């Protein structure tokens, strides 16, 4: 009996020592309109659930809406279901403030393609409600380190549908999308040398693009898709070149005797290239005409500035070494503007989404690197759900 | 007994999970300073077992956004058993900046 009382007393003591943890979250109000999927139901099997879940995540990730469980200004209504290997969805959007329906469309596709169908629906809804094209249907290329092997991968913009592209298990770097988003250019050392290849994402067929003696790296496709900026050391130091993809003819853009160039990226009109050079002693960003000429230094702040990408919005995103960590920063053609990240981790290889608003980058803390997306307007960040490995060098596809 | 720095880390993990999950509403729909309080219960493996808005703000958009955040966090990785043993319930205050 005494033992029983002892147990009761111990349980009572445990219950008494348990406390409620208190957490406070404070955020500024946004410009986002509230949107709810409470009246959009999924019936049937797994594909219908996948469709609904993907649609909800895509609309949240668009950055245009504040998702709400319950009444909201914008109500997604309708249903999705799957039967006989087919997924169907009827989507309507009711604007409660205006008291009218502002979107209606039906979708139908193979059950196995439920995610892609939901991406399409999300982009249609974003376009109808905001007038801006969405990014749910775009993809992200990256380098993955899994099981000690480095290879090229592609996933959807939400991190799902991860697909391995190369199977070399060899160092590879800096994937760059073709303008039609059907191929990638990248540097691979699978033959023992740093060479540039083009891989077709449909057939996975790979063709060598630049295999000159020395370094062949950092490919970047011009906005018209006809030229490739890249870094070659065939004439001595690593210098910037432009290759005509039709004729393979090279134009040398920089001629630095004592410095190395890296990471070119084209201006939206294709007339200029931003790149990294260490000619001043440490890596900084420079801008030069794509045809060559006098280069102009763009960045001054930060001990190093690397990995620039010139977005279609005219802004250059890059990684700047500040207080021991690489942080994501933004510049325009005139110079530095803003620092987007601040936490104690390295944030590298940023790449613009085609909406000119979201940026994907690699965030390293400890020995692991993962991919994150930041909304450049409200600075909210979200990790891509890529597990089992480390992920680097992301590149966001065109639409 | 849970070391103080370990407790702080667990608080940070919980806060970050719900900070990321909360898509706060617009200034047009919710006045600055509006506050909603919620409560979750966490199991030893980090699973969020119960979730509810305990004191609504009276604004359906804010309360709905909090409920959406509560629904979307199914599991919190990185909590220690000692922390969960000490705090089986977590009260979370969601507030829009003044």
Task: Describe the model.
The complex is a heterodimer of chains A (399) and B (98). With 399 residues, chain A is mainly beta. Chain A has 2 domains: 33-130, TolB, N-terminal domain (Rossmann fold), CATH 3.40.50; 139-396, Neuraminidase. Chain A has 3 helices and 30 strands. In chain A, strands 3-2-4-5-6 form a 5-stranded mixed sheet, with helices on one face. The longest helix of chain A has 17 residues, at 114-130. Chain A is globular, with a radius of gyration of 25 Å. Mean pLDDT of chain A is 93; it is low at 1-16. With 98 residues, chain B is an alpha+beta fold. Chain B has a single domain, classed as 2-Layer Sandwich (Fusion Protein Consisting Of Minor Coat Protein, Glycine Rich Linker, Tola, And A His Tag, Chain: A, Domain 2). In chain B, strands 2-1-3 form a 3-stranded antiparallel sheet, covered by helices on one side. Chain B is elongated and about 45 Å long. Strand 1 of chain A pairs parallel with strand 3 (89-96) of chain B, so a sheet runs across the interface.
Please tag this protein with its features:
heterodimer, A: mainly beta, Rossmann fold, Neuraminidase, 2 domains, five-stranded mixed beta sheet, 49% strand, disordered N terminus, B: 98 residues, alpha+beta, Fusion Protein Consisting Of Minor Coat Protein, Glycine Rich Linker, Tola, And A His Tag, Chain: A, Domain 2, three-stranded antiparallel beta sheet
Query: Portion of residues in helices of chain B?
Result: 25-40%
Q: Under the CATH scheme, which architecture of the largest domain in chain A would be assigned?
A: 6 Propeller
What is the general shape of chain B?
elongated
Largest interface: A-B, 33 and 39 residues
């Amino acid at each position: 009996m005494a033992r029983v009382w002892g147990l009761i007393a111990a349980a009572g003591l445990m219950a008494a020592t348990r406390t409620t943890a208190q957490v406070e979250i404070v955020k500024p109000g946004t410009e986002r309109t509230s949107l709810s999927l409470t009246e959009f139901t999924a019936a049937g099997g797994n594909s219908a659930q996948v469709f609904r879940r993907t649609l909800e995540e895509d609309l949240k990730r668009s950055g245009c809406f504040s998702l709400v469980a319950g009444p909201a200004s914008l109500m997604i209504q309708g249903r999705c279901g799957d039967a006989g290997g087919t997924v169907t969805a009827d989507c309507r959007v009711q604007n409660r403030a205006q008291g009218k329906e502002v979107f209606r469309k039906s979708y139908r596709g193979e059950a196995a393609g439920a995610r892609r169908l939901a991406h399409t629906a999300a982009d249609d809804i974003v376009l109808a409600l905001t007038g801006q094209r969405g990014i749910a249907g775009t993809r992200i290329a990256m380098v993955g380190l899994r099981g000690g092997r480095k290879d090229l991968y592609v996933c959807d913009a939400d991190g799902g549908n991860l697909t391995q592209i190369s199977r070399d298990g060899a160092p590879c770097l800096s994937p760059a999308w073709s303008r039609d988003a059907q191929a990638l250019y990248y540097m691979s050392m699978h033959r023992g040398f740093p060479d540039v290849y083009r891989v077709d994402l449909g057939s996975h067929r790979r063709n060598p693009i630049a295999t000159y003696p020395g370094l062949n790296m950092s490919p970047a496709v011009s906005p018209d898709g006809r030229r490739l900026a890249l870094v070659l050391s065939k004439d001595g130091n690593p210098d910037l070149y432009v290759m005509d993809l039709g004729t393979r003819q090279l134009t040398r853009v920089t001629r630095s005797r004592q410095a190395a160039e890296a990471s070119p990226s084209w201006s939206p009109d294709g007339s200029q290239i931003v790149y990294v050079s260490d000619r001043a002693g440490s890596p900084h960003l420079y801008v030069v005409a794509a045809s060559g000429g006098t280069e102009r230094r763009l960045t001054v702040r930060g001990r190093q500035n690397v990995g620039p990408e010139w977005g279609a919005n005219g802004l250059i995103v890059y990684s700047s070494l500040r207080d021991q960590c690489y942080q994501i920063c933004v510049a325009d053609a005139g110079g530095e503007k803003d620092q987007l990240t601040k936490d104690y981790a390295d944030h590298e290889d940023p790449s613009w989404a085609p909406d000119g608003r979201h940026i994907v980058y690699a965030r390293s803390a400890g020995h692991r690197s993962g991919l994150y997306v930041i909304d450049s307007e409200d600075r909210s960040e979200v990790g891509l759900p890529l597990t089992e490995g480390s992920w680097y060098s992301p590149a966001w596809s065109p639409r | 007994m849970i070391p103080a720095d370990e407790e702080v880390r667990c608080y940070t993990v919980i806060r970050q999970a719900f900070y990321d999950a909360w898509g706060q509403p617009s200034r047009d729909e919710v006045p600055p300073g509006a506050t909603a309080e919620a409560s979750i219960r966490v199991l030893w493996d980090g699973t969020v077992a119960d979730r509810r808005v305990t004191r609504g703000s009276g604004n359906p958009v804010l309360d709905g956004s909090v409920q959406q955040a509560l629904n979307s966090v199914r599991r919190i990785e990185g909590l220690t058993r000692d922390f969960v043993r000490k705090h089986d319930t977590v009260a979370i205050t969601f507030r829009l900046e003044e």
